[in-house]
Specification:
Blueprint lengths: L5 E5 L4 H17 L2 E8 L4 H7 L3 H28 L5 E7 L2 H11 L4 E4 L10 H9 L3 E4 L10 E5 L4 H17 L2 E7 L2 H4 L9 H9 L3 H5 L4 E6 L5 H11 L3 E5 L12 H9 L4 E4 L6
Parallel strand pairs: 1-2, 1-4, 2-3, 4-5, 6-7, 6-9, 7-8, 9-10
Antiparallel strand pairs: 5-10
Helix pairs in contact: 4-5, 10-11
């Protein structure tokens, strides 16, 4: 079973995208996936062109920049094939808005995962990563933090929705492929529920039972650990817990309560913006 048949890696040649490259190559090597490496060169905005006017020098400089970038992409391809041992590596250069070009490329190439560094400047989430995570038609991995690629302990967060169940199934498949421990996690919104749960103190036990419902029997050969996080009711609580546990990856569904929207939802956004471990946003299930 191939979980990710085609992986798209977005690069901007920064340190952040170097880490993303390591993660993409690590997963592609394990999955025997095709790796498509794409760089989007931002063009000169129309209003600047209007001010500068059309000149041969402007076009010559633009072509020179493209040639330099294409040379970097070729060097990167050789590096991936030589150092990472991947055979199927393709490079692409596009021009325009980075996030729209990446989203369109992923859609047209029917990729099953897109991998991005959080931002060009560091670990905070930049606009490109945020927009791709929100708009991508497929699964997105944002390689936050400074961890070397490794998948030994992962967690899937759930709100017991259909979308979260889908994310859990993908998490199980990843855990099987990498022989990893899998936490099935729910953040108990205690601060919001306190006025309403008098006489229902057994809620945590019922939630744990729900997390554990016959899944170990169904999936088999995966160490599934049900866990309730009680020290908060937001995505930041999940991020703090993941860092304390030394997890290698968090897996989230894009939004549990409204499957018609393409917005991440406030919980996923909070995790994405605060996590110090890589975060995978699940849009669709893998190929069987």
């Amino acid at each position: 079973m191939k979980i990710f048949h085609r992986i798209v890696l977005g690069v901007d040649f920064s340190e952040s995208s170097e880490r993303a490259l390591d993660w993409a190559a690590y997963i592609a090597g394990k999955m025997n996936s095709t790796l498509d490496v794409i760089h989007v060169a931002e063009s000169v905005p129309p209003y600047y062109r209007a001010i500068l006017g059309w000149t041969t020098i402007l076009d010559e400089n633009a072509n020179r920049v493209k040639e330099e970038i294409h040379g970097k992409l070729n060097d990167l391809k050789e590096k991936i094939q030589k150092e990472k041992g991947l055979k199927e590596v393709n490079i692409y250069l596009r021009e325009g808005d980075p996030h729209w070009n990446i989203v369109d490329f992923v859609d047209s190439h029917k990729a099953s995962l897109v991998v991005l560094g959080p931002s060009r400047g560091g670990n905070y989430i930049g606009s490109v990563a945020s927009e791709v995570a929100s708009l991508s038609p497929t699964n997105v991995l944002i390689t936050s933090g400074n961890r070397a690629p490794s998948i030994e302990k992962i967690a899937v967060a759930t709100d017991f929705s259909r979308a979260a169940r889908n994310a859990f199934l993908l998490g199980v498949a990843i855990a099987k492929a990498f022989d990893a421990d899998l936490y099935h996690v729910h953040v108990l919104e205690g601060n919001r529920l306190n006025p309403f749960i008098k006489g229902h103190e057994h809620l945590k036990d019922e939630l744990l039972a729900e997390l554990n419902i016959e899944l170990n029997k169904i999936m088999g050969n995966v160490n599934i650990i049900p866990h309730i996080i009680q020290e908060g009711y937001d995505g930041y609580a999940l991020s703090r817990w993941a860092e304390e546990k030394g997890l290698d990856m968090l897996i989230l569904s894009y939004r549990g309560h409204n499957e018609r929207t393409k917005f991440l939802g406030h919980f996923a956004e909070e995790v994405l913006y605060s996590s110090k471990v890589p975060v995978m946003i699940v849009r669709k299930f893998f190929d069987r």
